[in-house]
């Protein structure tokens, strides 16, 4: 008993002293913070039971569990890639914590509903298990849909973006100046991505590497073909003509996809017409057939 009391006393004293400024050693991030831009201000207090400490503990756990669940339901792309693609202000831990919050809320609502309705035990267990899982999948699907919409917008904007880039290069602009002009004066998904590309160039990355990073992040086949052409900036003298040809090829891909969509929708129009035609025909054929069966069975 004395040993247990000593261990509990030691743990309590350690926790109490760790909150005292004169005893606890500041972490490395806090020691380096005054030497960063804007880091001379007062550091926010982080108590033992503060929200930041809770996020530091629950964040990695929710991130790990969420990644396993997403892979189990067929999500192959990493969460960090999709968040960066749609320019989300959340990081992976923040997004998983939001998913955890929605799942806990759905679990609480399901528990209240189960207590109010008092269904069969099996049905109650299914409701309690399916509600948080459904909330998790809804949030995951929203991010996947936003990522797909961003890829679609970028694909549709690429022909115009490529033509503008070709005109600027033909007018005498360098590749870096052309990208900066389109990023600052443009609007849409392509301009937002180009602002990130120019930011990466200002951080020290070369233009070709920043464009390859953009292509790897966007995962649009048309952009994968355009970026190697842009990488020939220091090797080709007629880069504007090459980009114009690539812009025409991308526009043909967009037109081809549009024609395929129109053909698919025109075929879908005939589905209700065919059903509406077949049902009366089947009825008219079934009436004499049933009548003949009745006559033969009566005889």
Which descriptors would you attach to this protein?
single chain; flat; Receptor-associated Protein; 299 residues
Q: What can you see in these coordinates?
A:
The protein is mostly helical and 299 residues long. It has a domain at 150-255: Receptor-associated Protein (Up-down Bundle), CATH 1.20.81. It has eleven helices and no strands. Helix 3 (51-72) crosses helix 5, helix 8 crosses helix 9 and helix 10 (221-230) runs antiparallel to helix 11. The mean pLDDT is 76.
Short description:
The protein has helices at about 1-20, 30, 50-70, 80-85, 90-115, 120-170, 175-185, 190-200, 205-220, 220-230, 240-299. It is built from 11 helices and no strands. Helix 3 crosses helix 5, helix 6 (about 120-170) crosses helix 7 (about 175-185) and helix 10 packs antiparallel against helix 11 (about 240-299).
């Amino acid at each position: 008993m004395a040993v247990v009391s000593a261990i509990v006393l030691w743990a309590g004293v350690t926790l109490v002293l760790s909150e005292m400024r004169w005893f606890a050693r500041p972490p490395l991030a806090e020691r380096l913070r005054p030497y960063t831009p804007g880091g001379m201000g007062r550091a926010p207090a982080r108590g033992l039971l503060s929200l930041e400490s809770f996020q530091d503990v629950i964040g990695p756990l929710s991130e790990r569990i969420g990644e396993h669940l997403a892979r189990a339901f067929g999500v192959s792309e990493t969460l960090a890639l999709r968040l960066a693609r749609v320019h989300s202000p959340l990081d992976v831990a923040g997004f998983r914590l939001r998913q955890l919050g929605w799942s806990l809320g759905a679990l609480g609502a399901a528990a209240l509903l189960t207590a109010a309705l008092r269904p069969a035990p099996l049905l109650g267990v299914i409701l309690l298990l399916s509600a948080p899982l459904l909330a998790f999948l809804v949030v995951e699907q929203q991010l996947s849909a936003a990522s797909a919409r961003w890829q679609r917008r970028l694909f549709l904007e690429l022909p115009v973006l490529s033509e503008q880039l070709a005109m600027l290069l033909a007018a005498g602009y360098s590749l870096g100046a052309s990208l900066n002009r389109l990023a600052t004066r443009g609007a849409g998904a392509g301009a937002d991505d180009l602002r990130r590309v120019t930011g990466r160039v200002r951080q020290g990355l070369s233009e070709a590497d920043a464009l390859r990073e953009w292509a790897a992040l966007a995962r649009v086949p048309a952009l994968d073909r355009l970026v190697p052409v842009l990488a020939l900036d220091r090797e080709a003298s007629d880069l504007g003509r090459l980009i114009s040809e690539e812009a025409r090829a991308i526009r043909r891909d967009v037109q081809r996809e549009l024609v395929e969509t129109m053909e698919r929708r025109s075929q879908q129009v005939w589905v209700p017409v065919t059903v509406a035609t077949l049902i009366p025909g089947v009825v008219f054929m079934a009436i004499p057939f049933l009548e003949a069966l009745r006559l033969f069975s009566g005889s």
